[in-house]
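Q: What would this chain look like folded?
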Amino acid sequence: METINKNTEGMKKPNITYIIKVVQNDGTTIYPVYISWDDSKVAEAVDYFSNLYRNDWIVETVIDDTLLNSQELVSWESIKKSIFENTNSDNVWKLLKDLDKLWVWAWFIDLMRKDLQVEDNKKLLLTYLDVSWFSEDEKEKIKLAVDICLEAHEWQTQKRPQDLDWLDDIPYSNHPIVVALIWIRDLKMSAEEIQACLLHDVIEDTEFEKEKLEEHFSEEVINMVQDCSRNENETREQFMSRMKWLKWGSKIIKCLDRFHNIIRAFSIKDPKYISRIINETKEVYLPAFESLKELEPIKTLFFDLLEELEKYHEKIS
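A: My prediction, written as structure tokens:
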């Protein structure tokens, strides 16, 4: 991949604006952005886009001033600002900056930023639901599961005791909502499985009674939620061992749960905790991602995330 292939030599002209254009294999331009000439800013922008669109998605990155009047452009400074600023809280902003200082890949920082946009995630889930193939009755059941998810996890946040830099302002309900969003957007599975995604932590982690769930949801949904829940007298080792032998639908839900837990793990700076997440993932979840064809759409990203988490673990150890 050629990162800068023209206008890079002998063109240090002040007050001239250039364009960085990222091009896909099909010729589609992603992020046409302008930047005033500055060696450090050009290198910074090129590095960001190269990292963000790896896995052979980029054909070339061009610096060019010929498109200035023919493209709707966004400034590099505004894109850079959006990478590190988040409307949710100062803690989110600090987390993203800390990840950048640890040289975590830019594509992952952007993924984390989007992941923590709580209101956007809820809107996205409902948008996908509205245009989905589900019947109106199925849509109503999923919306009910969203409401119960928000109610049951109402006073819980995404903070973890393993880290002092808690994400106090991120509601825990963002986690099951993102898991369900991945399901409906990328995997396109059944309505009952999406309901179970939204409810998968309700029995284990909240005061919401199982009997109340049984009033509204099918036996299949309740069974999947129970499969995904750690029993009162079950050790973590026993729970992890049981995860290997779950039924098909429940196993995919737990794989998506772990997929999102890997993203959330980057907000924790405890090497022992991260090491446990990595080892469990390799032992229990990696074989499922390798064998289940239903997980194929997110398989590459899963492996990329696991690789990034291992690098992150090395940096904080």
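Residues 17-83 form one domain.
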